[in-house]
């Protein structure tokens, strides 16, 4: 991310991106970069100093450092749990960023979630029928986690929420470990505006921003691709944060 919280011009983006972190942009001013440690030596140690840099080499240490903090307070976290926490606690983008992951990594919130020191997000269960936009399940509380089930390979679940002008919706779909479910977000006209189609057991995330001047409905859809179905093997959770 750049200083304004949007995507840096050099950054990766797309459906495979899971989370974002500060990477800087020094094209206009060095102070818009990431202040990093530096040593003046070339072949042997010299004086320690600091300098501004930009790049994915600046963003990656932010995320790695947060993961290290998470593991220091809970060493038993699995890689999937780490990913899920990073995404579910990420800060919403303050600037427009399409296909940049679930948000900007948030160290404090991620560590709190790792140790269980925060109140869990409000939870609710899926209510059928919700197989179309017309029968979509209303979600009215921010940061809600929905416990859902895909009953068959042809089942699909729709949810809807109202996104305020200037607001950003982050939808995070966590399937059961043996299943591949996909995530889609549509605007109020039914036009697809975000999709995430990752492999079996992997978390899908969509982040969409309302750049208009009025609140609009957003539809979030969970779709079966492969794996389990039914009350036991078809479970997933969907977190909606805006």
Counting helices, strands and paired strands, the structural category is: alpha+beta
CATH class of the largest domain: Mainly Beta
Shape: globular
CATH architecture of the largest domain: Sandwich
| Whole-number total of structural domains | 2
Number of helices: 4
**Biggest sheet, strands in spatial order?**
3-5-12-7-10
For the biggest sheet, the summary is:
5 strands, mixed
Please tally the β strands and state the result. 12
Give helix and strand order, one letter per element, not per position: EEHHHEEEEEEEEEHE
Tell me the distance between the termini: 19 Å
Strand content: 25-35%
CATH names the topology of the largest domain as: Jelly Rolls
Average of the residue pLDDT scores: 90
- Pick out the low-confidence regions: none
Helix content: 10-25%
| Rg, nearest Å | 20 Å
Please characterize this protein's 3D structure:
The chain is of the alpha+beta class. The chain folds into 2 domains: 30-115, no CATH class; 123-241, Jelly Rolls, CATH 2.60.120.380. The protein is 17% helix and 31% strand. It contains 4 helices and 12 strands, in the order ββαααβββββββββαβ. It has helices at residues 56-73, 79-88, 107-115, 230-233; strands spanning 34-39, 48-53, 123-125, 137-138, 144-149, 156-163, 168-175, 180-186, 192-196, 204-209, 216-226, 235-241. A 5-stranded mixed beta sheet has the order 3-5-12-7-10. Strands 4-6-11-8-9 form a 5-stranded mixed beta sheet, with no helix packed on it. Strands 1-2 form a two-stranded antiparallel ribbon. Strand 8 and strand 9 (192-196) form a beta hairpin. The protein starts with 33 loop residues before the first strand and ends with a strand.
């Amino acid at each position: 991310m750049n200083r304004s919280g949007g995507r840096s011009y050099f950054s990766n983006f797309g459906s495979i991106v899971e989370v974002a972190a500060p990477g800087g942009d020094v094209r206009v001013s060095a102070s818009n970069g990431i202040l990093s440690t530096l040593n003046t030596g070339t072949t042997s140690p010299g004086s320690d100093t600091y300098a501004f840099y930009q790049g994915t080499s600046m963003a990656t240490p932010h995320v790695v450092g947060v993961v290290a903090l998470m593991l220091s307070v809970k060493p038993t976290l699995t890689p999937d749990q780490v990913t899920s926490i990073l995404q579910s606690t990420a800060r919403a983008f303050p600037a427009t960023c399409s296909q940049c992951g679930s948000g900007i990594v948030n160290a404090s919130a991620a560590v709190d979630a790792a140790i269980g020191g925060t109140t869990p997000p409000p939870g609710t269960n899926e209510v059928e029928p919700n197989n179309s936009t017309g029968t979509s399940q209303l979600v009215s509380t921010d940061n809600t986690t929905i416990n859902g089930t895909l009953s068959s390979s042809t089942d699909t679940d729709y949810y809807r929420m109202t996104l305020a002008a200037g607001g950003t919706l982050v939808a995070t779909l966590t399937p059961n470990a043996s299943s591949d479910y996909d995530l889609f977000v549509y605007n109020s006209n039914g036009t697809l505006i975000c999709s995430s189609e990752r492999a079996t057991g992997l978390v899908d995330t969509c982040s969409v921003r309302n750049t208009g001047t009025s609140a609009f409905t957003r539809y979030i859809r969970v779709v079966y691709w492969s794996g389990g179905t039914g009350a036991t093997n078809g479970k997933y959770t969907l977190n909606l944060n805006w």
